[in-house]
Structures are given as structure tokens and as C-alpha cells.
Design a protein that fits this description.
Number of helices: 5
Mean pLDDT: 83
Shape: globular
Order of helices and strands: HHHEEEEEHEEEEHEEEEEEEEEEEE
Low-confidence stretches: 1-18, 22-51, 120-126, 164-176
Structural class: alpha+beta
Radius of gyration: 23 Å
Helix content: 10-25%
Strand content: 25-35%
Number of strands: 21
Length: 418
């Protein structure tokens, strides 16, 4: 604390300062700084960032940002959770603000030109053991030719502004390699080119306070570039503590963002990429799951996001926004991730408990698969454990057979301090 107060006050702790007069001045200043620090922490811990008074210049800046980010709506849908989705003309969605997509030829009926085959011919058999999360807007969603884009509010931008020094960009609380981020995942980096990754993910809801988050996801990458999709509890991003579906794009300095803001092109009029998942799994009961995959059109090289076993393409990442991933991927992952600022005890991961090696207690990636040479198959044996703290655990169980097939378990308890 003394070190930080020294930096804030401009004092250096030399002996010259410690006359009685300076000591009194310093103690007075210390009290003032402690009071200010208390006020800051009070606001921070109670997620009141969105309610602090802005300067006139900041307020004008945010109003201009809102005009740029929120596109004209053909129709507006408000969910029971209070989220507002604007039905935006396909050609006016935020993806096309990307400088590399200005002269695109995309259309709402875009579909992959290559359909991956399965190494095994066994049918997909629904498992009554777990329940699929209900993902989709009621009433059929948006009109044909439009896509649902979550409306950005002033509070969203204020939170992003206040956390901008902590995060990699103003709308990106999930930067790779960020100090305070911890993992519990399995990564596959065999000497092959990956064209996709997929899994059935159990979704959970753990106690989290902004700017913390906890997530479960699949991830595909090449060098520093990556795409991921999964579930998250992230009040710094969404302004609530519910479980949401999410995607994250890391395609260089311009394209690092959540959801549909920097190059990801959305297709489905009824399924947003950031909907609430409710209910989430309950510890000791049949889990709630979402089935996700990211796979490459091996003809056009774009990357598609698929949801559920019925193979719904809900959107895609054009290969032109990437450098490394514009060709192929060199690694895939499945597992958990959590973040908390330095010196602040972090949230749990997965179900928030240590592994019991039982899918009604542990967070999991079931039916984990990869795509290689346009063929869907099990991951290679001997994945690398990506884990950096003994609060968290991960287990690669391999192909356990049945409907679960290739299984990865992960999780861990809260309280880790970086």
C-alpha cells in the first residue's frame, strides 16, 4: 500500500521529508488517498462503474460511439432478461465495418462449400442424460434478411472505458496471455493441419464480480490468432451475472473483440451469438449443454460456427481478416478459463469444484472432435494439459464410448490470487 500511495502522491520516501511538519502533511494526504481508494473500491466491487459522472467530453465521445456501433433496426426484440436485440439488415451488420470486408460478396444464404464427413458412420444418438440449452429468440427471431445484434448501451461503453487499461481493447475483456488469466484445458498440437474443433459443453453459472469472468470454450488457433466459442459469466462484458453464449475473435490489432463486432459475419435471424443460457447446470444434477463447433470450408477457407447436432451454421469468420488462420490452424483446445485482477481472489472454473470424475459434478467437453482433411474424428492421443495453478484441474479421459465419446473434464475452486 505504501508503494502505491507513494506513486499516487508524488512523494519519495527520503529522510528529508520526515520532519514533523512534513509528517503531518503526509499523514493528512495519506488519509485523503485512502479515502479516495476506498471510494474507488466501493464503486468497483459493487459494479457501479456505469454510474459515475462523466465529463462532458467523455459523454459526447460515448454518444458518438453508440451511433457508430448501433445500426438502424428493422425490428427490435427485448428478451425477458432485458437484453435488446436490433434486427439489422444483413449488409449493415457490424462485421462490414471491418476495413478488409468493405468490398465483400457475402449474402444471407451463405453456407460452407465443403461438408465434412465422419470417420465413423455411427449415428448421432441424443443422450437423455443431459439437456440441451434452449438457444434462440422467441417468435422466430428477426425477419428474413436481417440478423440479431445485441444493442450496446451507454453503460456497456462506460464499463469498457473504465476497464480499457486492464483489457486489450475497449470491448475485449478476454485477451490471450493477460496477467490474471488462468486455464484448465487440453490442447492438441500434433504435427497436422486442423480444419475444425467441436464439443458438447456443459454450461455453468458461478459467482463472478466485474471485471472477473469464468468461461468454458472450444478454441482453434494458429500462432497468435485464434477463434473461440462457448459459455461465459462476464459482468464486465454483459452487465449481468447470467451465463451467456459467446464468441471471441483474435485476428490482429484491429480484430480483437467479443461476439459480432469485428469481422465475424452473422447469418441466422433467430440465434444471436451472445444469448443468455438459462437455466445453467446444477451441481449433482443432469447437466445443461450447448453443442458448438468451428470448422473450415476447405474450398473457400472461411471458418463457420455451428450450433447443435442438427448442424446449424449461425455465422462465419471470413478468412481474409486473418493472416495465419487465413490458411489453416495448428492447434485446438477445449476446457475452461477464468480471470481476476492482480491481488483479487479469482472465481471458480467449470462447476466451481475439484474434479469428481463424474459428468453430473464436473464441467466437461463431451464428443470432443477435430476436423482434419475435411473429416471429423477424435483428437489425437496425448493432448497437452494447459493448466497453471493448483486450484484448477483438467483430465483428458479419451474415448470413453457411448454417446459421450471423447471426454475432457475440467474445473476448480475459487480463491486463486495472482
Amino acid at each position: 500500500m505504501d508503494k502505491h500511495l507513494s506513486n499516487l502522491s508524488g512523494f519519495s520516501f527520503s529522510s528529508e521529508l520526515f520532519t514533523e511538519e512534513n509528517r503531518v502533511k503526509f499523514m493528512g494526504l495519506r488519509i485523503v488517498l485512502l479515502y479516495l481508494l476506498f471510494c474507488y473500491l466501493f464503486l468497483y466491487q459493487n459494479e457501479a462503474e456505469g454510474y459515475r459522472k462523466l465529463s462532458k467530453e467523455e459523454d459526447l465521445e460515448i454518444e458518438e460511439q453508440l451511433k457508430r456501433l448501433n445500426k438502424p433496426a428493422v425490428k427490435t426484440i427485448k428478451t425477458k432478461y432485458g437484453d435488446i436485440y436490433d434486427c439489422v439488415d444483413f449488409y449493415k451488420q457490424p462485421a462490414f465495418d471491418h476495413p478488409l470486408l468493405k468490398n465483400h460478396s457475402f449474402h444471407p444464404q451463405m453456407r460452407s462449400a465443403s461438408i465434412p464427413s465422419r470417420m465413423s458412420l455411427e449415428k448421432e444418438v441424443p443422450n437423455s442424460y443431459y439437456k440441451s440449452a434452449k438457444i434462440g429468440l422467441k417468435g422466430g427471431g428477426c425477419p428474413i434478411g436481417t440478423v440479431p445484434i445485441r444493442r450496446i448501451t451507454k453503460d456497456d461503453l462506460i464499463r469498457a472505458k473504465l476497464h480499457s487499461q486492464m483489457y486489450a481493447s475497449k470491448i475485449n475483456p478476454l485477451a490471450d496471455g493477460q496477467n490474471g488469466t488462468h486455464y484448465g484445458a487440453v490442447q492438441y498440437t500434433a504435427n497436422i493441419n486442423y480444419n475444425g474443433v467441436g464439443a458438447v459443453l456443459s454450461a455453468w453459472n458461478l459467482p463472478v464480480r466485474a471485471p472477473q469472468y469464468t468461461s468454458g470454450r472450444i478454441k482453434i488457433k494458429n500462432g497468435a490468432e485464434s477463434m473461440e466459442a462457448g459459455w461465459t459469466v462476464n459482468p464486465g462484458l454483459y452487465g449481468d451475472v447470467r451465463t451467456h453464449m459467446y464468441i471471441y475473435t483474435n485476428a490482429g490489432s484491429f480484430s480483437q473483440c467479443f461476439n459480432a463486432r469485428c469481422g465475424y459475419v452473422h447469418l441466422r435471424p433467430d440465434i444471436p451469438v451472445d444469448m443468455v443460457i438459462d437455466p445453467a447446470s446444477t451441481y449433482g444434477e443432469n447437466p445443461i449443454v450447448i453443442t458448438l463447433s468451428i470448422y473450415q470450408d476447405t474450398v473457400k477457407l472461411d471458418w463457420y460456427l455451428k450450433i447443435n447436432d442438427d448442424g446449424i451454421d449461425i455465422g462465419f469468420w471470413p478468412h481474409t481478416i486473418f493472416t495465419n488462420l487465413g490458411q489453416t490452424a495448428t492447434a485446438v483446445e477445449c476446457g475452461g478459463e477464468e480471470f481476476s485482477p492482480t491481488d483479487v481472489p479469482g472465481p471458480g472454473m467449470g462447476s466451481g469444484h475439484r474434479l469428481k470424475y463424474d459428468t453430473i459434478y464436473d464441467a466437461f467437453c463431451a464428443r470432443t472432435n477435430i476436423k482434419v482433411n475435411n473429416t471429423i474424428m477424435n483428437p489425437p492421443n496425448g493432448g497437452d494439459y494447459v493448466i497453471d495453478n493448483d486450484h484448477f484441474e483438467v483430465a483428458d479421459k479419451g474415448d470413453v464410448g457411448g454417446d459421450v465419446r471423447y471426454l475432457i473434464l475440467y474445473g476448480g475452486i475459487e480463491g486463486v490470487v495472482t
